[in-house]
Amino acid sequence: MPSIPRRSFLEKTGALAAGAATFHIASGLRAQSPNEKFTVGIIGPGGMGSNHLRGLARLSEVNIAAVCDVDSNRLGIAVKNVELAGKPAPRAENDLRRVLDDKSIDVVFIATPDHWHTPAALLAIDAGKHVYVEKPASHNIREGRLLIEAARRNKRVVQVGTQSRSAPHLRAGMEKLAGGAIGDVLTTKVWNSQLRSNIGHAQSEPPPATLDFDLWLGPAPAVPYRSSLLHAKWRWFYAFGAGDMGNDGVHDIDIGVWGLLGDKPRHPSRIAALGGKYFFDDDQEFPDTQNVLFEYDLGGGKKKQLIYEQRLWSPYVQEGHENGDAYYGTSGYMVLGKAKSWQIFGKKNAPGEEMKGTIDLDAHHQNFFDCIRTGARPNADIEIHHYSACLCHLGNIATRLGRTLNFDPAAEKFIGDDEANKLVGREYRKGHWAVPKGV
To answer: I want to staple 308 with a disulfide (CB 3.0 to 4.6 A). Which of 78, 292, 412, 439 is the partner?
Structure first.
């Protein structure tokens, strides 16, 4: 499928986004004209953050004023990459508070480890910044609700890095499902199959001289440094990540619940799960094998299901896609892979309509900036994302406890289960400046 220029993205998908909600622009929020520039700070420019940096550096409307990282090596690379893109060197900081104190910065991109996503985003929102935060936006269920409240209270745009929400082929596919192309979608299956690396077993040791490990820990409980934590390996530990369900799985889970529930996301009422470490012998705490079943009670006796399958030792395609979604309706089904295509199958498995495409991070960036200008809700608004991220948290809790859980969608708590409710939030480092208010 030919690429669509970023600036014409909203025009090309306008009919699909016609129902998007808008909100009042607060008096302190500058509604910028297309010719005005955004002054941006990037917090966490390594890993996925480096992809954001490269994309933003290509935009004439963006001035990258500051980059922030607790690893001086990554910080130096980030500054150099901005200069290589032909832009002035940004200010280099290792403490995000200095970025947020800069009143000239309108927007921050947050691509830190998961345990920093909500604390950093809350501080940024309260400092008056618009926020693009990587997935999962929350480390736990309680944090997600706090992010929604902060975004609405401060009237700031908060876009989450589930960039599939801005892909034209996926938006078209979701429109087909909403329009009844396969009848009433009663079940969605999501799969995450790939071969991850063994992170080994590591002993405590002094952190590298280039790393401010105390700043890296932030409001999470203090633990000794070990090499199996950094970089990117933190996602396999309860205190810092959400496992691969919250890392890679969340993309396909988000697409799965999008097709199942459309523009009315909600929480499930029952969660059942089995899983564990069937393959890896290393320091990882999250399962490498996981099967989770979510049941949605829509009222009036109507229910739907979402099924999640995870195999981190199986790099083989399933129904044509390594990671993907299958939607089962009353008059057909759709098979979808976010980075490749979707296809509808009708009665007797007759092949039907299909569409190819791929993910466009630049389009997701542009949607974010356009919404800052217009006051519209972004494609991956924090409230939409909350329901997808919570599926990861709920699934991980059910897998960890090894039993079926009953959940109160309105209260966002488990019913009659004190042990499970302790995992709705988390333990923070007592007295740390970044502990979210209201936890």
So the answer is: 292
d(CA 120, CA 71): 17
Q: How many domains does the chain have?
A: 2
- Distance (Å, rounded) from C-alpha 146 to C-alpha 151? 9
What's CA 87's distance to the chain center, in Å? 29
Place of tokens 């699934």: 395
- For 23, other C-beta atoms within 10 Å of its C-beta total 15
From residue 79, how far is each of 47, 69, 365 by CA, in Å?
14, 11, 20
Confidence at 36, pLDDT banded by 50, 70, 90: confident
User: Is cis: bond before 436, omega within 30 of 0?
Assistant: no
Angle at 362 between CA 358 and CA 363, to 5 degrees: 70
Residue 431 to residues 146, 314, 420, 437, Cα–Cα distance (Å): 19, 43, 25, 11
Rounded CA-CA distance 249/270 in Å is 20
Residue 278, domain extent: 167-199+227-361+387-421
* CATH value at residue 260: 3.30.360.10
Contact 146, 439 (CB under 8 A): yes
Specify burial of residue 402 (Cβ count, 10 A radius: 0-12, 13-18, 19+).
Answer: exposed
- Are 103 and 92 part of one and the same domain? yes
d(Cα 306, Cα 395) in Å, to the nearest integer?
11
Work out the number of other CB atoms within 10 angstroms of the CB of residue 155: 16
pLDDT digits (tens, 9 = 90+) for 349-371: 999 999 999 999 999 999 999 99
